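Annotators were shown the component list below and the corresponding predicted structure, then asked to write short factual statements about the assembly.
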Amino acid sequence: MLKEVFSRVSQGYRTADYPRKPPTLPARFRGRPRISTGSCPAGCEQCTDSCPTGAIVSHEGSCRIDLGACLFCGTCADVCPDKRVQFTQEYRMAASHREDLVEHAGNAHQLASALNATAQRLFGRSLRLRQVSAGGCNACEADINVLGTLAFDLGRFGIEMVASPRHADGLMVTGPVPTNMALALKKTWDATPAPKLVIAVGACAISGGPFAAGPGAPEGVGSMLPVDVFIPGCPPHPYTILDGLLRMLGRIEDGFRKP
Amino acid sequence: MSRHALLALGNGKIAPTDTIPSVPLDDLRELVIEKIAEGCQLFALHGFQDGGALTLQVCLGDPQEGTLLLGTSPLPDHYEAWTPNCPQAHWFERELAEQWGVVPQGHPWLQPIRFHASARPGHDAWGRDPASIRIGDRDFYRVEGDEVHEVAVGPVHAGVIEPGHFRFQCHGETVFHLEVSLGYQHRGVEHLLHGGPSPRTLAVAETIAGDSTIAHGTACCHIIESMAHAPAPPRAEAVRAIALELERLANHVGDLGALAGDVAYLPTASFCGRLRGDLLNMTAALCGSRFGRGLLRPGGVRFDIDPSLAAELRTRLDATMRDVKQAVELLWNTPSVMARFEGMGIVTRETARSLGLVGPCARATGLEGDVRADYPAGHYCFAQVPVSVWETGDVFGRAYVRWLEVQRSVELIRETLAELPEGPLYNAAGKLEGGQIAVALVEGWRGAVCHVARTDREGRFAVYKVVDPSFHNWIGLAMALRNNPISEFPLCNKSFNLSYCGHDL
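Structure shown to annotators:
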């Protein structure tokens, strides 16, 4: 027993001071890409040719990036001769609508809005989620799991992952939803009592990611269930996920914390 | 001795496809059985279509010689199964039957493993109409008798974890047999790699099993680099090795914490949960992604370790390992933990050997296979890693081998950081040479990751075969559970911690 007490003291208090303070992110972190204004050289398609998922496309003489398909690999930024694409440290990227995930030069970011008053009253202080991995590669799953560790301590926000859809207020779905998981996802959804939410986490769940070109052309959870929040990334950083959840619940607004 | 010889190929080396000997099927089987008896390991056994004709290709690893042995044979629609005399082939033959609609006659338990239509229309090993194939629609092994009951779990499990179905045959609490039925995660990885390389190739390889991004990504890069005659520079290989060992560290430390959690020992569980994150954040310091996404590129790596980053990584590693050591040693000194770990979920060395288990699960039984030592490639040609072995084959063995490997990975990272080779990070990899075969093995944290590719005349992937270590090891979990209480399933399962998507592809 003494050993445990000693270890506890020695390992210290490690829960991050988020959302009171902004999170610490690695210097090489690739968050929301920024596309500078101006036009691309005629005929230059280096970024579109090298994108693994076709997330970046030519658009009105410039380009635009669908964050719902982007793997944040940074290749487009590397190959752009004019360095017009840059990945920033901005980790806040969750959106309420699929079209809000399209990034272009000079666009105003529309982050996820809070649920309506009724939903906030129901879920705002206690949200139970059932996670369903539907073809997820275990990276999104791992970074959802990590929210439960003492570093993030999801429980302090009143959010908890539960074992049964019957206990859940919503589903947090990862993966492109391949053919073999469609029925299991549908059954899990049907078993969740209404009113219920759907949160799509990661490029695969939002658009099929690199697997959209595969057998059955899976397009993510949106083709099957109504999605309330889209959280982009491959996988999204845990803070991107946490930010999306708290934003959805109306617990944080534009700044770091609701005043 | 057989009168045929197989083609010997180094890890990450290429040879023209026409130099692979084509051997009559019966002779190939005898040869493989002979080689396995001599200590070789079956890394891949797969089919491909060569101008319409179905061909079987085998890839064995010979740890004594440090080479991979390749052979092919024409594959008829019906053939005598290898499994009865070569148990290592059991899961491969099920895959063959499913992918190509061939029937290995005499296979003791021929069931689909991923539930998709065969690649040859009109051929199905079970005579099914492709439109009627449903996930999980198969026969399950059943035990009959008084008080025998069946427990079905999944596909959707209680935790934040991938889907799969487990069917237990129980007598009271005791599990007589566990059948693992997967395929829910099948995304068509090999289909997507076929015809490459393309910009999508590496992205798909990195997500074969997301927790093994560096292992699968490196294997894919080695295939492309060898076929393009553009080996990654030594500095890039050193950075890859650091990333691979960080991946091993993060997952092993996470597993040790999760094992503690499964026996309700919360101090180590909560410490290791945080420490795993610290290790993932070191990978993020290297390349911006906690899972190593974006670090690799065919021909090298995209991020350097400059002296200040090397110093930062060393400092962070020292601080983290101090805490890891304290957290993990609590396990070995706590009788209530050891009572649950020791003697639980035993897989004997004979079983592990005959079924061809790989990675820490095999080394926990005393088998010494480790790609880094047996078939070194890249940075491992210069850096030696002692193989971590334990004898007991139980949950404790699998946990303790992880702990040994953690310590040795840390040593390797420290040494590599101190002596990073000078030079560029990248050699431009051009077009692939046509008509070649390459095999790339990487010791991921779960064991040997194997990629086998053949190019067509134009230098595109005509065949791209992926074998994740979990493909070998799921049967090991089933064996570990025999005659143990069903309540020990979570603990045994965590001690293997296998990949669903790596298996399902």
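Statements collected:
1. Chain A has a mean pLDDT of 91.
2. Chain A touches chain B through 70 residues (CB under 8 Å).
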